[in-house]
Specification:
- 67% of the residues lie in helices and 0% in strands.
- By secondary structure, it is an all-alpha fold.
- It is globular and about 65 Å long.
- The relative contact order is 0.13.
Amino acid sequence: MPNRTLPTLPARLDQAQPYVLGGFRIVVGLLFASRGAASLFGVLGGMGGSGATVPAGTWPGWYAAVIQLVGGGLVLLGLGTRSAAFIASGSMAYAYFSVHQPEGLFPLQNGGESAALFCWAFLLLVFTGPGALALDRVLTARGAAGRQEPEERKTASPIAA
């Protein structure tokens, strides 16, 4: 009987890591984009469930909502994930320290739990990248395949041409 060892749990978890990271990115991007859509268009109950929208061009609410919608959509799709996540993380850090933190020291006291969680979730994506199921990977693979030279051109001598 051959000696087959089953992969250890950590090894199996490591194999799933890109897919779990991709799922994490998709969920975080969808939630963030939903907040932006609610604030800009009043969908999904609008801002805070009141059905209200942010007046166009107002600082900082309207700009934050645009970052949420666009940045969340890009992260959701996996397009420019690291850049979009960096901007989204920064916007949530700004929101936490300028809006929530003056109301109390801890997120539970000042209502800034979602800002803090989004900030750290996006910062994680800046460093880990998009994981599996990202359009960046598809576009990069297609671009690399398009730049490949035909086999006969690779092996042809420059003198023979």
